[in-house]
Amino acid sequence: MTRTAFWLILVLIFSSISELSAQKIGARLDIGRREPKPDFIEYSPKDNGLVTLGPYSKASNRFLAITKYNSTFRKEWTKEVIQQNGRKNVDFMTVLGENILVFVSEFFPREKVIKTYYYRYSLEGEVLEKEAILSIYPNQKEQKVDLQYVLSPNKRRLLCYKNLQNRKEAEKVLYYLFSEEGASIANGELTLKYPDNRFRVTNIRVSNQGNVFVLGKFSERGWVTDPNNFVYLAYRYDTQINEGREFEIDLGDRIIADMTFRIDRDENLYLAGFYSNRGADQMAGTYLQKINWMGIVEKEATAPFSQDFLRNYLSKGQINRGKEIRDFYIRPEDGIILRSDGGVLLIAEKFYIVYQTYRDQFGYLVDREIYHYDDVILTSISPDGDIEWQSVVEKRQASDQPANLSFFNASSAMGTYIFYEYKPRRANLNVYNQLVDIEGNVGPRVPLIPDYKYGDFYYPRYSVQTGNDEALLVYLRKRGKIYTVLKVKFEE
User: Fold this and answer.
1) Is the Cβ–Cβ distance between 310 and 321 less than 8 Å?
2) Which residues does 333 contact at the CB level (< 8 Å), separation at least 6?
3) Neighbours of 214 (CB within 10 A)
């Protein structure tokens, strides 16, 4: 067989695989070894393009620039934004409507403060605001402001927030709200009645209407004395009238093992997760609650795991003794998907860390952390709170460098796709995907990228779903020399 014939056969094989996976690779951006690698990359919904932020040139990191790409990933323009001085940190970049926002925090030693400010550009590259001040706080541990950022479900509101450390004072959340037009429309401090050292914020979201939702845990006797002694609390804060409403989530004798929430377009609050009969580090079943914007509980239900599902992880004897499964966690950012009929899909992953100690070649003891990201479980919960089905996407990932571990999920009319880097037995390393359809059937493990090789590095955390039938995947090729963004289209 000639070399040309071999590569032709290989291309045909991957073409048939692509048809099997009902997906195809559309646009592709390759940033080569002579170009600087971006630190931030964002999708632009208005024109289906990309915006990146990173060093202006390969030779120096002193100047940072924004680069805009069109829908086919062709470069439209590049503009210098920031000149580094050793005290600046780029916190966040996003595309909000037709605005590009870049947030920077800078330490001023004479004033002993940290200033957070932002730049605003149009999608055409016009400077709309430059170094607009957002916050000024003392550079002290208790008052230091390192803002976090989250977009509303429709991507038309941006919430900048910080959980302030007040020790024994009331829990406070500092927030700034931006509209789709790029303007700051509200700011303030959200104050809860609970002392800071007894309340832990687990997740914060902003609704399409611009109201702030907080999920957290409160312990009366402290976290160390009894790790199971806590209650989950949800809080809705109306940013227009500066008033809040609290909801307590109580399962009676059962313990909430893990929980997250989502907000629909009508500001109904969906809280879902796992409960345990034994302890907060175990799981026996699922929990679902729907609370409307008035605070009225419209749905509440728990459902135990089936024995068929438990047999994936426990022996028959363990199941009979009431043993529960461990080490599965719901990612707060995308672990719950709202269904059109009022049900939800929960997605959780098995995660744990193994600590190893070994003696190196010089005789020194070295501690090493090995991160394990294993199976992904998907649980479909009906509007009445019943478990309709549970599916397992099997994988085993372990490394002391976790950046390319875990998975990315995207939903379409066909079901939910799970993407992850993996090397199956008797197969090559690749970014594989599996479709879990709307009935819970798990499809075959299918490689996505024909030219993926050892030394390539997939970043699931940088991947993003950009539409009902489309997603962007990011990976490094040729041992980090080429930065690649793929537009993947799901086909029915």
Assistant:
1) no
2) none
3) 25
Nearest to 233 by CA among 210, 208, 202: 202
Residue 279, domain member (yes or no): no
Beta strands in 382-469 (DSSP E): 387-393, 397-399, 408-412, 415-422, 430-437, 446-447, 457-467
336 close to 264: Cβ distance less than 8 angstroms: no
Picking from 274, 334, 343, 342, the residue whose alpha carbon sits closest to that of residue 309 is: 274
pTM of the model: 0.87
- Give residue-wise pLDDT tens across range 59-102: 888 999 999 999 999 999 999 999 999 899 999 999 999 999 99
Residue 248 domain-assigned (yes or no): no
Long-range contacts: 435-441, Cβ < 8 Å, 24+? 435/21, 435/22, 436/378, 436/391, 436/393, 438/414, 439/389, 440/378, 440/380, 440/388, 440/389, 440/390, 440/391, 441/391
Burial environment of residue 386 by CB neighbours within 10 A (0 to 12, 13 to 18, 19 or more): middle
Separation between Cα atoms, residue 116 and residue 131, nearest integer Å: 9
Given a cut of 90, whether residue 227 has pLDDT beyond it is no
Domain carrying residue 98: 36-126
CA atoms within 13 A on the CB side of 265: 5
Ramachandran angles phi, psi of 245, nearest 5°: -135, 135
One-letter amino acid for residue 399 of the chain: S
* Cα(42)–Cα(141) distance, integer angstroms: 31
Q: Do residues 278 and 321 touch, judged by C-beta distance below 8 A?
A: no
- Copy the structure tokens of residue 278: 């034994």
Rounded Cα–Cα distance for residues 153 and 270 (Å): 13
Residue 133 located in a structural domain? no
Q: By three-state DSSP, how is residue 104 classified?
A: strand
Buried-state track 273-289, b at ≥16 Cβ within 10 A, e below 16: bbbbeeebebbbbbbbb
| 65 within a domain of the structure (yes/no) | yes
**H or E stretch including 316?**
helix 316-320
**How far separated are the first and last CA of the chain, in Å rounded?**
36
- Number of Cβ within 10 Å of residue 362's Cβ equals 6
Rounded Cα gap, residues 492 and 489, in angstroms = 10
Is 54 exposed, middle or buried (CB count within 10 Å of its CB: 0-12, 13-18, 19+)? buried
Residues with Cβ within 8 Å of residue 194, at least 6 apart in sequence: 170, 171, 218, 233
Q: Structurally, how many domains does the chain consist of?
A: 1
Could you give the percent of the chain with pLDDT greater than 70?
92
